């Protein structure tokens, strides 16, 4: 039975615009439907908040935040959000409709994927997450159900419903509720309720494991058991279940799902670099030991519990046994007198000398060992590396006894390009010799070039400015003939200028030609008509025709006529040539009928008069004006017939 038949949302018109169709998916907070946008005549996806949450102001705010957060992302691998609203107390938002299935459905059908296919899908997922992380957003619910596989081969990440602008760490718990899907929650989300970009990386690593193995790494009878395993158990290497998986793929999974979030890649952009190195190795059919070492190095430097050598535990024994150990028989009476006491003391000291000597030697050894451990032993201190050029790290590493690994590049206004901005562990911290210190190298000041905007529509120009990490400043609108209405004439600063993030780019946008009122110039001499129209920026074209009513050289008519227009419009003027004169044809000797036809065809009117000698022959014997004389077209030619 189709479950949508009894769904009251099916068939409903939301916001007077979206006609709700079949149900697509149902999640923890909302249900997604296929819908028709009647205004734009297109298919969209509509997400409707569950009724039990609609009355909760906090959930409604989170739902509205989803639209604002996701709308900030413009990326081919992110499902676009179009609109949000509320209809009769039902909050909803509309999104891009992606026909196809989900990664979850694909895994159910194929169980597990080949390494190449798994990395291809993961690459596009990480591109979407990288765009979010660069915009300061954390998805917080990365899972196969939120990865859409389009029928056209596209891969898009959906449901940024738990995303929130990141400032430091982001709390995942709201009103005592742990937000997210337990199978993909990072340990810190479970233990401390915080999530940053590394939590998304963890979830992406879990998905990679699931694609390679065909099962989740942590299973349990209840969500609590699964969460416990995330906190207390490492994700196993995929090759333990599926032999033949390359070591660098194991490394990808283990590095991304490390329980210590400081070990994971800093964000999706860093993880994506590792994934693309792995894809290259797969494509070439070779192993990549260097990549494997980079990914699994943290496994070889996990701290071990400190051991104190040569220290014996405190011994607790009954007094009688102790007395027996030093030569005093148990239960013997105490010797009396000073002599006896003195002799006993001497014997006691003699017996204790070897013990005391051994103890002294032990203390010296312990002290020496402690000094060795603190000095030249297996420990060292992280050197001050901030401000050091990347080219000098090898020399500094040799002197300090640590190994530097560049974890990423970051923008810096303070540190020149190619110098270290920060390190982890931080300078002066104690660490094992030979251990790895991650450093972040300056990319120099964060600068973005102003894109070429001239000639683009204002909407497209705004999109490019936002995509370049800049913002639109002032917008001046001017009339112009050279650039079409709504298009950018120029920008300030000009294209190519390097600006800081969020610097304003000012636009000058065309309003198109300036409106003018076209006056009437009919009847005016041509020169006067031009003098009237030229200052208005109108283009004048002329043609001529004969006119019996308008003097030669004056305007007979104009097109367009008087009324509204724009600078640059063309006004066509028809100028009078005055009356038209033609030579009168010779019709003498012709019959009256023929003569009348010839003169009428020539454009003249005919008047026939009988001669005084008229005999009924109807032959023309005279005409006025005479043959060859010029006469105005339409004038009367008088014929005399006999």
From TrEMBL:
<keyword id="KW-0418">Kinase</keyword>
<dbReference type="GO" id="GO:0004674">
    <property type="term" value="F:protein serine/threonine kinase activity"/>
</dbReference>
<dbReference type="InterPro" id="IPR008271">
    <property type="entry name" value="Ser/Thr_kinase_AS"/>
</dbReference>
<dbReference type="InterPro" id="IPR005543">
    <property type="entry name" value="PASTA_dom"/>
</dbReference>
<protein>
    <recommendedName>
        <fullName>non-specific serine/threonine protein kinase</fullName>
        <ecNumber>2.7.11.1</ecNumber>
    </recommendedName>
</protein>
<dbReference type="Pfam" id="PF03793">
    <property type="entry name" value="PASTA"/>
</dbReference>
<keyword id="KW-0067">ATP-binding</keyword>
<keyword id="KW-0812">Transmembrane</keyword>
<keyword id="KW-0547">Nucleotide-binding</keyword>
<dbReference type="InterPro" id="IPR000719">
    <property type="entry name" value="Prot_kinase_dom"/>
</dbReference>
<keyword id="KW-0723">Serine/threonine-protein kinase</keyword>
<dbReference type="InterPro" id="IPR011009">
    <property type="entry name" value="Kinase-like_dom_sf"/>
</dbReference>
<keyword id="KW-0808">Transferase</keyword>
<dbReference type="Pfam" id="PF00069">
    <property type="entry name" value="Pkinase"/>
</dbReference>
<dbReference type="GO" id="GO:0045717">
    <property type="term" value="P:negative regulation of fatty acid biosynthetic process"/>
</dbReference>
<dbReference type="GO" id="GO:0005524">
    <property type="term" value="F:ATP binding"/>
</dbReference>
<feature type="domain" description="PASTA">
    <location>
        <begin position="512"/>
        <end position="577"/>
    </location>
</feature>
<feature type="domain" description="PASTA">
    <location>
        <begin position="578"/>
        <end position="642"/>
    </location>
</feature>
<feature type="transmembrane region" description="Helical">
    <location>
        <begin position="353"/>
        <end position="375"/>
    </location>
</feature>
<feature type="domain" description="Protein kinase">
    <location>
        <begin position="18"/>
        <end position="275"/>
    </location>
</feature>
<feature type="domain" description="PASTA">
    <location>
        <begin position="444"/>
        <end position="511"/>
    </location>
</feature>
<keyword id="KW-1133">Transmembrane helix</keyword>
<keyword id="KW-0472">Membrane</keyword>
């Amino acid at each position: 039975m189709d479950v949508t038949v009894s769904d009251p949302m099916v068939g409903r018109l939301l916001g007077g615009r979206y006609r709700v169709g079949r149900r697509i998916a149902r999640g923890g907070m909302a249900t997604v439907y296929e819908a028709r946008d009647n205004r734009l005549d297109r298919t969209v996806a509509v997400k409707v908040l569950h009724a039990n949450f609609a009355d909760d102001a906090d959930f409604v705010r989170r739902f509205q935040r989803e639209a604002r957060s996701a709308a900030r992302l413009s990326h081919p691998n992110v499902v676009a959000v179009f609109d949000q609203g509320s209809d009769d107390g039902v909050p909803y938002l509309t999104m891009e409709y992606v026909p196809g299935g989900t990664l979850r459905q694909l895994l159910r059908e194929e169980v597990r994927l080949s390494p190449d296919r798994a990395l291809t899908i993961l690459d596009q997922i990480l591109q979407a997450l990288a765009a979010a992380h660069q915009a300061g957003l954390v998805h917080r619910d990365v899972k196969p159900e939120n990865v859409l596989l389009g029928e056209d081969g596209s891969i898009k990440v959906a449901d940024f419903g738990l995303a929130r602008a990141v400032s430091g760490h982001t709390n995942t718990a709201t009103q005592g509720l742990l937000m997210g899907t337990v199978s993909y929650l990072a340990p810190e989300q479970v233990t401390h309720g915080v999530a940053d970009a590394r939590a998304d990386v963890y979830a992406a690593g879990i998905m990679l494991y699931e694609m390679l193995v065909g099962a989740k790494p942590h299973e349990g009878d209840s969500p609590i058991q699964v969460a416990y395993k995330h906190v207390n158990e490492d994700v196993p290497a995929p090759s333990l279940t599926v032999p033949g998986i390359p070591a660098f793929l194991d490394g990808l999974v283990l590095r991304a799902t490390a329980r210590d979030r400081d070990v994971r890649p800093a964000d999706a952009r860093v993880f994506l670099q590792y994934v693309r190195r792995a894809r290259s190795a797969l494509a070439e059919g070779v192993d990549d030991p260097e990549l494997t070492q980079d990914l699994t190095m943290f496994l070889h430097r996990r701290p071990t519990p400190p051991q104190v050598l040569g220290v014996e535990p405190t011994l607790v024994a009954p007094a009688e046994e102790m007395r027996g150990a030093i030569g005093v028989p148990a239960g013997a009476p105490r010797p009396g007198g000073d002599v006896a006491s003195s002799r006993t003391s001497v014997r006691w000291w003699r017996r204790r000398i070897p013990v005391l000597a051994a103890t002294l030697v032990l203390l010296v050894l312990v002290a020496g060992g402690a000094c060795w451990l603190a000095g030249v032993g297996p420990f060292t201190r992280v050197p001050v590396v901030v401000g050091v050029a990347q080219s000098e790290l090898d020399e500094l590493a040799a002197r300090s006894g640590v190994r530097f690994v560049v974890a990423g590049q970051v923008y810096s206004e303070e540190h020149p390009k190619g110098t270290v901005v920060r390190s982890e562990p931080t300078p002066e911290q104690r660490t094992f010799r030979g251990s790895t210190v991650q450093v972040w190298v300056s990319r120099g000041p964060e600068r973005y070039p102003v894109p070429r905007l001239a000639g683009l529509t204002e909407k497209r120009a705004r999109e490019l400015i936002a995509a370049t990490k800049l913002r639109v400043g002032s917008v001046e609108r001017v009339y112009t003939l050279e650039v079409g209405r709504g298009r950018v004439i120029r920008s300030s600063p000009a294209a190519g200028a390097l600006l800081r993030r969020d610097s304003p780019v000012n636009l000058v946008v065309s309003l198109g030609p300036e409106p003018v009122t076209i006056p009437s110039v009919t009847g005016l001499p041509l020169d006067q008509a031009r003098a009237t129209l030229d200052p208005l920026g109108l283009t004048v074209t002329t043609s001529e025709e004969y006119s019996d009513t308008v003097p030669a050289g004056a305007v007979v008519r104009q097109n367009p006529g008087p009324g509204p227009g724009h600078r640059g419009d063309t006004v066509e003027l028809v100028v009078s040539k005055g009356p038209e004169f033609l030579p009168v044809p010779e019709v003498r000797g012709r019959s009256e009928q023929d003569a009348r036809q010839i003169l009428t065809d020539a454009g003249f009117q005919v008047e026939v008069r009988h001669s005084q000698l008229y005999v009924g022959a109807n032959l023309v014997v005279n005409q006025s004006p005479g043959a060859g004389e010029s006469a105005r077209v339409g004038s009367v030619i008088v014929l005399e017939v006999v």
